[in-house]
Amino acid sequence: MLYNILIAVAVVSGIGLICGIVLALASHFMAVKVDEKKEAVRACLPGVNCGACGYTGCDGYAAALVKGEAEINLCVPGADAVARKLAEVLGVEFTDVIEKVAIVHCGGDCKSTERKEIYEGIETCAAANLLYGGTGKCSFGCLGYGDCKAVCKSDAICIEDGIAHVSTSLCIGCGMCVRACPKHLISLVPDVIQTIVFCSNREKGATVRKECVSGCIACKKCEKLCPEQAIVVRDNLAEVDAEKCTGCGICADNCPVGCIKVGSFLGAHK
To answer: If DSSP states are collapsed to H, E and C, what string results for 110-136?
Structure first.
């Protein structure tokens, strides 16, 4: 009896020893070499994996940096702090990051527009948009179900009075909300911008008036009064040239519908 037990123990131990040797040899001969420089670069990045840099997450950006195919100032969420670390690790000159914030180009809340129908489906913007472009009278407006809020990594977005609002002081400029919005109402803009048009409707003024009292009616008052020629009306919608705009506020003061706002939109890194 004891003999049989010893034989079984010996066999199992032998099998374990052989498997251990095989695994040790496999780990030696099949080991994947770690690029220490890439690992050091990856450690500098915030790990948000937002794609704002133009690459498929932080790993993709790190690989491009090591190969010299990318600039060090592309990580908007990491801002200048990350750029400085990358410059030190890669031994290159520091370059400022153009910090950005997300803006929802819609001011059509519950007080400004109405619903054209009642929606009882899946409560996401992506789903509601499939039904004739949403339930609002304005087919360009915010759907208000919060797909942008759901993906926001810094809790910078809230839904109030039926539309999304971005708290720019919390926004890290990752751009996740931009990709989540089925209406393409959200854009990333340099956070030094001073004037924003909160409307995306490109229909004629008479039609816009019937749909939303806060919508741009393409009256061109802003274009005519701007002393810097920083605002023009294209395809029935006012557009601001941030490089020319001085934030004087003349356009906002004279906008008959109040869709132009002037103020500070500095992001979370300021």
So the answer is: CCCECECCCCCCCCCHHHHHCCCCCCE
The pLDDT tens digits for 81-139 are 999 999 999 999 999 998 899 999 999 998 888 888 888 889 999 999 998 788 889 99
Name the phi and psi angles at 225, rounded to 5: -95, -15
Q: Residue type for 137, please?
A: K
List of residues 6+ apart from 108 with CB closer than 8 A = 136, 138, 141, 142, 163, 199, 212, 214, 215
What is the C-alpha to C-alpha distance for residues 3 and 16, in angstroms, rounded to an integer? 20
Distances (CA, A) of 76 to 93, 125, 142, 190: 18, 26, 25, 10
Task: Give residue 160's region: left, alpha or beta (phi > 0; psi -120 to 50).
Answer: beta
- Point out which residues pair with 188 in neighbouring strands: 102
- The string of pLDDT tens digits covering residues 220-249 is 999 999 999 999 999 999 999 988 999 999
For residue 176, pLDDT beyond 90 = yes
Listed residue (121, 168, 163) closest to 138, CA to CA: 163
59-63, 111-115, 132-136, 170-174: range with lowest mean pLDDT? 132-136
pTM (predicted TM-score): 0.80
| Number of CB atoms found within 10 A of residue 263's CB | 13
* CA 87, chain centre distance (Å): 24
Domains with residue ranges and CATH for the chain? 36-90 (1.10.15), 100-262 (3.30.70.20)
